[in-house]
Amino acid sequence: MSSLAMPQEKKREYARKATQKRVGSTSRKPPPVEEHLDQFEVKKEIEKDTRVFLKNAMKQDRLCATLDDAEIESILNTVKFYKFDKGTPIIQEGRLGTTFFVTQTGSMEVSVKGITCNTIGAGCAFGGLALLYNCPRTATVKATANSEVWGASGVAFKQSLQQNATKHQAETLKFLDAMSIFEGLTKKQKNCVAEATFSEVFEDKARVVTAGDMQTAIYFVKKGELAVYSGGHVKSTGEFVDGSEIGRLGQNDCFGESQVVSKEPFNITILSSGRSELLCVSVAELKVILGDDLGAVLERNAISQGLKKCPVISQFTASQRSELMKWVVVKDYAASAEADAGARIIIVLEGSVSGLEKEKEVKLQRGDWIEDEALLNSSSAASSIKNMKAGSGGARVAMLTRDGMASALKALGVSIANSAEDASDFTRKMVLAKKVHIFRHLSEEQTKKVVESFVTMKFAQGETVIEQGTPGTSFFVIANGELEVFINDKSVRRMTRNSYIGERALLFHEPRTATVKVVSDNAELWAIEKATFEKIIAGNMQQQLMNRIRLQDTNFGLKDLIQVKVIGAGAAGVVRLVEHKSTGMRYALKRVKKVDGEVPEEVQRECSLLKDIDHPFIMTQVNTFETKKSVYILTELITGGELHGAIREIPTVLSRAQAQFYTGSLVIVLEELSERNILYRDLKPENVMLDAQGYLKLIDFGIAKKLPEGESKTFTMIGTPHYMAPEVMRGHGYGTEVDLWSMGVMLYEFVCGYLPFADDLDDPTEVCTAVLKDPLQFASSYKDAHGKTLMKGLLTRQPRIWATDSYYEYCVSQQEYSNTGKC
To answer: Which of 96, 367, 717, 780 has an alpha carbon within 20 to 30 A of 751's alpha carbon?
Structure first.
């Protein structure tokens, strides 16, 4: 078939099969800066009229549109005045952007690779995108007439955008925290709702809501005061008259939340008393983010948060708690009505409940919970919760009965134990055992044997768990705490909860190869004796474990490796296949040259992150070596090639099963990174390798970032535009959820054969515009309804699916993976 005869979609599909790779803004060598501007600077004070002119121009720029006057002023305080003669370049394609410009007089043309593509006149702002993106200029701007231009500091420009976003987020979270309706939302969910809020200003006597109106938004008073009226009516002129004032709402007050749940219209009218500013979140936006039945969703979140607080239930993963939720019963009780006697967990959703716990009186208010000490007890012992009754105003409670708990545990593959204490301990160990990667091949019975063999050991800070050179008799799983591993007194890694140590001596009958000490205040470890361990370890698990152990052997240097051949080369460095002289173990060795005697920042960042990650779907970093001129990174050898190449070897688009397999694997990886608060930021087929069995291995953490404790956002615009989420481009801050957008782009590429946005574009500015504005459309040949639903959720520009606790849970809820399981 000739290309002229192909329909457009088929052309795109064949184009996908080409070898073109999308490249992000990760250049190691900084491009030239805009030092040429100094020669065009003219000393000039900014006058009042000019300042107003520049403000108006900046507010027309999409990057500055959300800035308030104070933030714009902070940018204007850094401006310099420039004069350019006709024909003079103002910015040059390929140079690093350091200045944000506003034209006062004159005209300019914009060209890309020598081809004119736009013009700029007086009152236009330009140059901001490259600053935000931290990338070279993507176009040349040249004066076509004598022109006067103001240029502001790029640092001040980016700081103002970030400060604006941070301030808005803080104000909005304060608004959400003040509303009881949002009590059940997680921090991540609140951040998503915060993204959907907006400010609205009302002048004196303006109506905010009118009696009889249906609910359209929830409001929070940011500034000013509101008057609340009963009765009255609205004249044909729009004036409200004859109402009786019954109250006032001031700063930090909120209203409208009760109507969201009740779905009843307002029975009051609220007017602005003087000028007021309100923060609002529309009901329509909330439905997009949380679902159509807001009352049910918010109630479900309240139950979920209550379960997280229960000591036993808190040990379960998000997906396991989701299974428990299916067995929770919600009931309404009239005043003084007695609650069901079989309840083992009670969470108060509305009203109050009182009764006895361990024969002591307790009273529970909204949001409180109580857990029976015999929650998991297999005996018929009476509950420690007795005589629970609703308060004078009645109560709405969520309950989990003993039978419900038993059914949930059975569905999860967790058995009930013989005593409350044993049950709690057993449940925690089963949950944790299932998280340890080396146990993933075990059957349910084998996992139980592991758990039954665990012996709890507690250590204080500074204590030695195992010592290098001593015989090994036990294998340890870290239940709580942080440990540091030393080889020959040199720290090589830190290990946290769910990691394991001591396996080498058990399998290979060798002395301990490292010393492990407790660095946290204390640590709790679970130990399995050698004899039991050897009985359990077999088959796939033994093979995988032995391979992981060999990768952890770092007690050798470059001189112990033989170079076999070059297996890759690029701008970042050369990758060679190497072999250990003694063991025959093969690795990949990447050499990166130092810049001015220093290891490049992105290489330092990648090594730092990979050092502490141990996951079967993430490339294992074995060791790093430094010489005077280079740094060498030794990793596991991945022999299956790039996913980018693999999907292009398939003559058509990927089948449903293939797309499910690859996307499901990515979900597992991203959930792991999210739990560690790590943003990958450059997810694309080129950065995914395949191992010998065809499983995914995520590589290249050069622009990944671990968010500091307590932070949920970063602002740097970085990555590959075709796979980049809109939040990254807007400059208002983003979190780990942006990697799910990239996964959505990859899924679309898998099943449609081309990219969803800007498939035929390469200019970063044009690509960003397409990602921000173009509609999501599917190939006419793609008919999978569940797949479309999932991709619409992943590729929405609204913060919808990011509100879920579990990435995998969301994907399963869309039924895209329902017939194949988790992986």
So the answer is: 717
Residues 701, 774, single domain; the answer is yes
d(CA 390, CA 512): 60
Confidence label for 626 from pLDDT (cuts 50, 70 and 90): very high
The reply to whether 328 and 412 lie within a common domain is yes
Contact 27, 94 (CB under 8 A): no
* Residue 706 shares a structural domain with residue 803: yes
* CB neighbourhood size of 350 (10 A): 18
- pLDDT tens-digit readout, 395-421: 999 998 878 887 877 776 665 544 444
Per residue in 718-746, pLDDT tens?
A: 899 999 999 888 777 888 889 999 999 99
Q: State which amino acid sits at residue 721.
A: P
Q: Residue 124 CB: number of other CB atoms within 10 A? A: 16
- Token code pair at residue 239: 């004036």
- Counted domains in the chain: 6
pLDDT of residue 324: 83
What is the residue-wise DSSP string for 576-644?
EEEEETTT--EEEEEEEE-BTTB--HHHHHHHHHHHT---TTBPPEEEEEE-SSEEEEEEE---S-BHH
Cβ(585)–Cβ(552) below 8 Å: no
Rounded-to-integer distance, Cα 40 and Cα 81, Å: 8
Tell me, yes or no, whether 64 lies in a domain: yes
| 719 and 653 assigned to the same domain | yes
Q: What pTM did the predictor assign? A: 0.64
Give the span between the Cα atoms of 266 and 268, in whole angstroms.
Answer: 6
pLDDT category at 383 given cuts 50, 70, 90 is confident
Q: Which of 372, 425, 614, 682 is catalytic?
A: 682
Helix residue spans in 692-763 (DSSP H)? 726-730, 738-752
Q: Do the Cβ atoms of 365 and 352 come closer than 8 Å?
A: yes
- CATH code of the domain covering residue 153: 2.60.120.10
**Rounded to an integer, what distance in angstroms lies between the CA atom of residue 671 and that of residue 664?**
11
- Work out the pLDDT band at 499, boundaries 50, 70, 90: confident
Contact 512, 581 (CB under 8 A): no
Task: Render pLDDT for 795-811 as a digit per residue (tens, 0 to 9).
Answer: 988 765 555 555 556 66
